[in-house]
Design a protein that fits this description.
Layout (H helix, E strand, L loop, with lengths): L8 H17 L4 E6 L12 H12 L4 E4 L11 H15 L6 E4 L6 E4 L25 E5 L2 H12 L6 E2 L6 E5 L4 E5 L26 H13 L7 E5 L11 H13 L2 E6 L10 E6 L6 E7 L6 E5 L2 E5 L15 H4 L7 E8 L4 E8 L4 E4 L1
Parallel strand pairs: 1-2, 2-3, 8-9, 9-12, 12-14
Antiparallel strand pairs: 1-15, 4-5, 6-7, 7-8, 10-11, 13-14, 15-16, 16-17
Helix pairs in contact: 1-2, 5-6
Length: about 375
């Protein structure tokens, strides 16, 4: 059984006091923990779940969000490796599993490589340096089946009391009725499981990002049914809200219209051969209730805040060590220190429309408004 290293103890107590101070200062505030891009790679295991457990218990925080990419960043060659990692991750996440709002990332449940052009080099670019189409790339060429992904990730989430899943079982919401908060988790790489003649994924979720019609319908329904004007809404997914998502303009339009309480109509023709990613939305939020706190994500392994229209889009540095953090150091220099992982605790003051991000580990505290 893993225990929290001694060098975290006094530091963590100071952070807990900071969170408690914010909670006590802003009477109607609520808090949630957030971590992303764990990129599990075996021993020494990340202490992030232990940190989250102690913070949640001490600060009465109901949920931690894990925004994808729990599995390692380097590709596995076989499905057996993916399944083994998933089993080990369950042990690592066990301290908070019954309070963990987990979603999938593009590195989760993908594997394999294929030298398609037979040049002896595994590469995702052509000789002239241009990127190959997603279905011709040579890494992460396979994906686990939707049933396997559900078993590895969403089946555990489904056991949390109060979870409501979409029909596709890869998006969900849960209400914190005590604090009047609705948490909505989305899959930002929602591709059909379809194979090419060589057995590789035709629409590899490693490389293609989109929400698709069923999720956007689910999102609009869930936003329209927010219970009251004093409710807050937190939306999270793995990929940040940016043009790299195929139906980016559509989800941006939905969230902005909800925030402004206006109507929105939009269409995206899609880019897939079978048309699975074609979407259209016609929704009126004029009588909808609640306020959107922000869209929270990972994927880019860094702290960032951008306002897309009027939507705060918040990203958090990866839980795992990443060379972008310390380009002049080795991994061994960071392990065993307070820089060995990163996670946030977001404390929201809905009266002042202000969010206080308390950083645990590598990085700095942040403040933003919505």
């Amino acid at each position: 059984m893993q225990t929290l290293p001694s060098y975290w103890v006094s530091y963590l107590q100071d952070k807990i006091k900071r969170i408690q101070f914010l909670q006590q200062t802003y009477e109607k505030s609520f808090s949630f923990a957030f971590m992303t891009d764990l990129h599990y790679k075996g021993a020494p295991a990340s202490v992030a779940p232990l940190l989250a457990e102690q913070i949640m218990d001490a600060c009465h925080i109901p949920y931690t969000v894990l925004a994808g990419d729990s599995q390692r960043s380097r590709w596995r060659l076989t499905k057996d490796e993916v399944l083994k990692e998933a089993s080990e991750l369950e042990e690592l996440l066990s301290p908070i599993r019954n309070r963990l709002l987990q979603i999938e990332g593009n590195h989760d449940c993908v594997y394999g490589e294929l030298d398609r052009d037979g040049d002896g080099v595994i590469s995702n670019t052509f000789a002239d340096g241009t990127a190959k189409p997603a279905n011709l790339r040579e890494t992460y060429v396979h994906s686990c089946t939707p049933e396997e992904i559900y078993d590895m990730i969403y089946r555990k989430v489904a056991q949390i009391p109060g979870i409501h899943f979409s029909k596709s079982k890869c998006a969900y919401y849960i209400d914190d009725k005590e604090d009047s908060v609705r948490y909505i988790g989305l899959n930002s790489q929602c591709n059909p499981y379809e194979l090419q003649n060589d057995g590789t994924a035709k629409y590899p979720k490693m490389w293609l990002f989109q929400f698709t019609q069923p999720q956007l319908d689910f999102l609009t329904e869930v936003l329209l049914s927010v219970p009251g004007a004093d409710w807050s809404v937190v939306v999270f997914a793995h990929c940040p809200l940016d043009p790299g998502i195929g139906d980016y303009e559509i989800i941006k339009g939905i969230l902005s219209a909800y925030q402004r309480k206006t109507a929105y109509r939009g269409e995206y023709p899609g880019r897939a051969e079978n048309g699975f990613d074609k979407v259209s939305v016609d929704v009126d939020f004029s009588n909808a209730a609640g306020a959107l706190i922000g869209y929270f994500s990972g994927h880019i392994h860094t702290d960032a805040l951008a306002y897309v229209v009027d939507i705060p889009v918040v990203t958090t540095a990866c839980v795992a060590y990443h060379k972008r953090k310390f380009p002049d150091r080795t991994e061994e220099d960071v392990a065993g220190t307070l820089d060995e992982c990163s996670l946030d605790v977001f404390t929201v003051d809905p009266e002042r429309r202000t969010v206080y991000a308390t950083r645990i580990g590598y990085g700095e505290d942040r403040i933003f408004t919505y």
